[in-house]
Each structure stands twice: as structure tokens, then as C-alpha cells.
Write a structure and sequence with these properties.
There is one protein chain. The protein is α/β, with parallel strands linked by helices and 484 residues long. The protein contains 17 helices and 19 strands. The protein has two domains: 119 residues, Urease, subunit C, domain 1, CATH 2.30.40; 312 residues, Metal-dependent hydrolases (TIM Barrel, Alpha-Beta Barrel), CATH 3.20.20. Helices cover 37% and strands 23% of the residues. The strands form three sheets. Strands 1, 2, 3, 4, 5, 14, 15, 16 and 17 form a nine-stranded mixed β-sheet that branches. Helix 3 packs parallel to helix 4, helix 13 crosses helix 14 and helix 13 crosses helix 15.
């Protein structure tokens, strides 16, 4: 008989293991934070301190938000303020002004309060791991507060301290590569653990004034022994590179500077890349994260099949509440499916082969194992396998929005196409129950919300941010609506 700390029985278990097994009536057991057994109920012979009867529920690996900016929780609702977005480079420049206006006022304590809210939301949605790209470096301790919130939450984190110094951001946010790398080392000393990895990199070539700085950051990462990444977004579609005298695409550009050499790197978004550059991403084992919401902004969609055809299993990201107010991983999966459809139709070509077409199973793969791989966590997370960490989510499939499922024949289809975050009942990370009955086991949820709201109220009082926001307050009119 197997002895475990926790046994989950009578469950619909989605393993995402190498054979992609789905145990339609199965069990999962873990001990000391690791999975020690799983299989069909007919083979369950386990003694456990805690047993969870998951009849009518689904168990799946924890999901990873593979592209995120944690502090941007401060900008929830921003999309509607700037809509419609037709000039993306112009929208990014305008955003930087507001973003740094807020960053000026975010010390460690305030950032901690804001990011606790973001972490709470992600956990309740079924995320067990998150990425961060922190680049608003006006206050050094802002990253400390942000990452302390992730550490406190119990989530896994792949946390990147980026270096920026171009005209794309206000000068008060500029720093030298040497100063930035010193901060990376300080943060690594404080936060690196078996759950948290500290990395460095830059947003894209537009955010560094001197192209040589790209190389200095890569070299610095290698010297420090930390991962390196690039947010591979070229909203100019090659025009900005042409101004630099480079006629290739952005992946070509990074290869030209030697940034793809020396081991796999994080490659955020990988948007506006040229046809042959998919091969380069595969050749250099770049870890790609797709952000489907943005691909509706620019009407490009996502050529998911181009990645899959080259053996790349991308992760999925939300790019923070500033970009996607909805942090629902099931929504991100269906957005990815629709974004592929948009890309195929926009290209005017033939339909991809069946095995390259995104569907419910593929969406789950990308949200779990793909995200873990992108964040260099797939050795411990992303699938339910013996020896891996007990990072898993229990979903109540008996909810109205997930029924009927035709006696299980459409369970996964219903989950991806209709799943909402309130169906997430229980969340484990390394065997610790962080969400139970849809509620946090570590935090007073109402207090987390109150403290984040208090921080934003203080920031608005101290800055001219209110003048940048639509006047949706009593006594004002906006877009034909009257607020009384």
C-alpha cells in the first residue's frame, strides 16, 4: 500500500504526461510536496492523511502565466480609457508616461499591496506559476515589494529584472547595464529559491539606446548564472530595424548580435517575426510565450501551427491586467484558438494539418506544460507525473456553464470553451493547499482588496493621474453617459 499525505480520488485526471493520459476515473497522491502515485481508481491502494473525494471534478496540472508585468495591476480598466487602439507604437509611448507617473509613487510597501491582489487573483484562477517583467525601475525597492508578494503567496515565479535606457521610457527610469545587473544580483540573493527564479533581460531592442547594451546584458546574465530573456515584440514590423540599417527581422537581429547563443532564452510574444524566423526560434530552443489578447489588437492572430510544426510548445500569457483585464486562463486558451483561426484566414492560405490545429487539448497543453517549459520549470511542474511537484488544480465540472458534458465526452471542450475562474475550487503548489473552496488559505481576501484600493487612492491623490483618466465620477459626463 502506498502511503501519502494527500489522496485525491474519483477524479477526472488530466495528466499532460508524455502519453497525454486522461484518467476518466482516477486518483492522484502526493507526499512531501511531490507526486508519488496516480492511476485508474481500480488500481488505487493508498493510505493518506487527507483524502479528497473529487467525484464530478477535474484535476489538472497548475497553469503558468507565461507573460506578465505584475505591477501593472494598478492599471486595470485602462484599455477602455484608450480605446480604440489603432496606432500601437503611439499607444505604447502614451502608456509609458502614465506607467512611470504611477511608478514614481510605488515603493516596496505599496507595490507589495498591489501585487498581493494580482497574485490572489491568479491563484483563484488556477495559476500556480507566473512570469514577471519588471522594468519600471524608478524606485529600486519596487521590485522587492512586488516579488515579496509572490514569495508570500506560495506561487512559483520566473521573475525578470529588465534594464531599459532608451527614449521610449522617461529618463528617470534609465539605468546603465552595470547598475541594472547589480540589482539583479541583489534581488537574486534575496529571492532565489526552489520556487522562485530571478532572471534578467530587456523588453526589446527599442528600449535600449545602445545596441551593445543587449550584448552586455546577455554577458552579464551568463556571468551571474541567471536566465536571460527578450520580449520579442516589434510593433513597427521591421521599420525600426531598418532605421538602424538592419533589413532582417527581429529574431535575425538578435542572432546577428549573438544573443541566441549559449543556451535557451525566454522569448516573450515572438510577434511580427518573419517566416524563416520560426526555424531560428526552434534551432536555438527559444522559449516562447503567446499573448493572444494583443493579437486581436493588431488583427494578426497567432500562427500557432508554425510553432507546433517546429516542435515548439509555447506557453500562454496575459500580459497583465493593463493589457487584458480578464486573467482567466480558460479565456486565454480560447483566445489562442480563435487567434490561430484569425491568422490562418488573414494569411489566405490552406488550413494547417489537423495535428497542428489548436483545440481544447492543445490549449491545456500550452497553458500547463507549455507555460512551465517557457518559464524553465518543466522539470518540476506542468504535468502530473511521479516525481514532479504536487502543483495541481481541482475544477468543479458540475457547474452550469460546464454542463452538459455528454457523460464526459465533452469535458475538456466545455472547460476550455466555457470555463470560468469561479469553477476553480482547490489549488495546490508543492502539496500545499493555497486555495480551498475557492478561497485563499493564506490571506484575508477582503483585506488584500482593501489595501490595494487604498494604495491606488493614495497614488491618485499624490499625482496628476486623475487628469489622465476619463471623468467617470459624480457630476461628470463621458461618452454621452451622465454620472450623478
Amino acid at each position: 500500500m502506498l502511503v501519502a499525505d494527500t489522496l485525491i480520488r474519483n477524479a477526472y485526471v488530466v495528466t499532460v504526461d508524455p502519453k497525454r493520459r486522461v484518467l476518466t476515473d482516477g486518483w492522484l497522491a502526493f507526499k512531501n510536496g511531490q507526486i508519488v502515485g496516480l492511476g485508474p481508481m481500480a488500481e488505487c491502494d493508498v493510505s493518506a492523511k487527507q483524502t479528497i473525494d473529487a467525484r464530478g471534478r477535474l484535476v489538472m496540472p497548475g497553469m503558468a502565466n507565461a507573460h506578465n508585468h505584475l505591477v501593472q495591476i494598478a492599471f486595470r480598466g485602462y484599455n477602455d480609457d484608450r480605446w480604440p487602439v489603432l496606432d500601437i507604437p503611439g499607444a505604447v509611448r502614451a502608456l509609458m508616461v502614465q506607467l512611470f507617473t504611477v511608478a514614481d509613487r510605488l515603493d516596496a510597501e505599496r507595490t507589495h499591496a498591489l501585487v498581493r491582489l494580482h497574485a490572489l487573483e491568479m491563484l483563484k484562477a488556477g495559476y500556480t506559476a507566473t512570469h514577471d517583467e519588471h522594468f519600471t525601475n524608478v524606485r529600486a525597492d519596487s521590485a522587492d515589494g512586488s516579488w515579496a508578494a509572490i514569495e508570500e503567496s506560495g506561487m512559483r515565479g520566473y521573475l525578470t529584472r529588465c534594464i531599459v535606457n532608451s527614449a521610449f521610457v522617461p529618463s528617470r527610469g534609465h539605468e546603465t547595464v552595470e547598475a541594472g545587473l547589480a540589482e539583479v544580483e541583489r534581488l537574486r540573493t534575496r529571492f532565489a529559491s526552489d520556487r522562485i527564479a530571478v532572471a534578467t533581460g530587456f523588453l526589446n531592442f527599442n528600449f535600449l539606446a545602445d545596441p551593445q547594451d543587449m550584448c552586455r546584458i546577455r554577458q552579464g546574465a551568463d556571468t551571474l548564472g541567471v536566465r536571460f530573456g527578450i520580449d520579442m515584440t516589434d510593433n513597427s514590423r521591421g521599420a525600426a530595424l531598418a532605421k538602424r540599417g538592419f533589413e532582417g527581422g527581429q529574431v535575425d537581429y538578435y542572432r546577428h548580435w549573438g544573443l541566441l547563443e549559449g543556451g535557451p532564452i525566454y522569448a516573450g510574444k515572438a510577434v511580427n517575426i518573419r517566416a524563416h524566423e520560426f526555424d531560428l526560434l526552434a534551432e536555438y530552443d527559444c522559449r516562447v510565450s503567446l499573448v493572444p489578447m494583443l493579437r486581436f489588437f493588431d488583427a494578426q492572430g497567432i500562427a500557432v501551427h508554425e510553432f507546433l510544426a517546429r516542435g515548439i510548445l509555447p506557453g500562454l500569457g496575459t500580459d497583465a491586467p493593463l493589457v487584458s483585464d480578464c486573467q482567466n486562463p480558460f479565456e486565454v486558451m480560447r483566445q489562442t484558438i480563435l487567434a490561430q483561426n484569425l491568422a490562418v484566414k488573414a494569411a489566405g492560405g490552406g488550413k494547417p494539418a489537423a495535428e497542428l490545429w489548436a483545440n481544447a487539448e492543445r490549449g491545456i497543453e500550452m497553458a500547463t506544460l507549455g507555460g512551465a517549459r517557457t518559464l524553465f520549470m518543466d522539470d518540476v511542474a506542468g504535468s502530473l507525473e511521479i516525481g514532479k511537484a504536487a502543483d495541481c488544480v481541482i475544477v468543479d465540472t458540475g457547474r452550469a456553464e460546464l454542463q452538459p458534458n455528454y457523460h464526459g465526452a465533452r469535458t475538456l471542450g466545455a472547460l476550455v470553451w466555457g470555463g470560468q475562474t469561479n469553477a476553480v475550487d482547490t489549488v495546490f503548489v508543492a502539496g500545499e493547499k493555497l486555495i480551498e473552496g475557492g478561497r485563499s488559505t493564506r490571506w484575508d481576501e477582503e483585506q488584500v482588496v482593501r489595501e490595494a484600493a487604498s494604495v491606488l487612492a493614495a497614488v491618485m491623490h499624490e499625482t496628476d493621474l486623475p487628469t489622465m483618466l476619463p471623468p467617470r465620477r459624480a457630476g461628470a459626463t463621458y461618452r454621452g453617459w451622465t454620472y450623478v
